[in-house]
Design goal:
Blueprint: H1 2-16, H2 24-31, H3 35-38, H4 45-70, H5 76-93, H6 95-101, H7 119-136, E1 140-141, H8 145-166, H9 172-186, E2 187-188
Antiparallel strand pairs: 1-2
């Protein structure tokens, strides 16, 4: 039932454009259960939203894995490019889901978690792994792979955020061009 609730909440993100209109009552209606049933799985709306954040990150990670696997297996740059394009395409096609990825959890741990342990940190980790594949294939990665992963993630997040927020400069072609430029700056192919 928990998965069905998350799937219904995820569907609402598309309709609502983000979590702002998300409610226990609305999720219950979309799931086809009474609102009280939701509380058996999530203590409140914030707990549901925190789990939905992780759920959306997992969906994005699966998409990135498929994109990398569908690219030329002998070309780590093509794999990384495919993952970055998939990231941008996901964001532009699913703005409500994308916004959920950058939600700050209400309950914050007393100590910051290791980045790889967070859902969004795992997304960055997919890009770091892409640069590690480039390095392992004998290509020169001009900066440490961790830095390279953070750079491409931060840059593409910024480009997508500007497009979603202001409608400026984020067509598929423009984003793909930025990805190509970034990869050329970071990897000496």
């Amino acid at each position: 039932m928990r998965t069905e609730i998350l799937e219904a909440a995820s569907g609402l993100l598309s309709e609502l454009g983000g979590e702002a209109g998300l409610s226990i009552r609305g999720v219950a209606r979309a799931t086809g259960v009474a609102p009280g049933s939701i509380y058996q799985h999530f203590r409140d709306l914030n707990a549901l939203a925190d789990c939905l954040h992780a759920y959306e990150c997992e969906r994005l990670l699966a998409l990135l894995e498929r994109a990398g696997a569908d690219a030329d297996r002998d070309d780590p740059i093509a794999q990384l490019r495919a993952q970055l394009v998939a990231y941008c395409d996901f964001a532009l096609a699913n703005p409500g889901h994308y916004r959920m990825l950058f939600r700050r959890p209400v309950a914050r741990p007393s100590e910051p978690p290791e980045p790889k342990a967070t859902p969004l940190g795992r997304v960055v980790g997919a890009f770091v792994a892409g640069f590690e594949r480039c390095r392992d294939a004998g290509l020169e990665v001009r900066v440490p792979t961790r830095d390279a992963g953070v750079m491409v993630f931060s840059t593409m997040h910024g480009r997508v955020a500007v497009q979603l927020g202001y409608g400026i400069g984020g067509t598929h072609e423009q984003l793909a061009h930025t990805i190509d430029q970034l990869l050329a700056l970071i990897v000496d192919a």
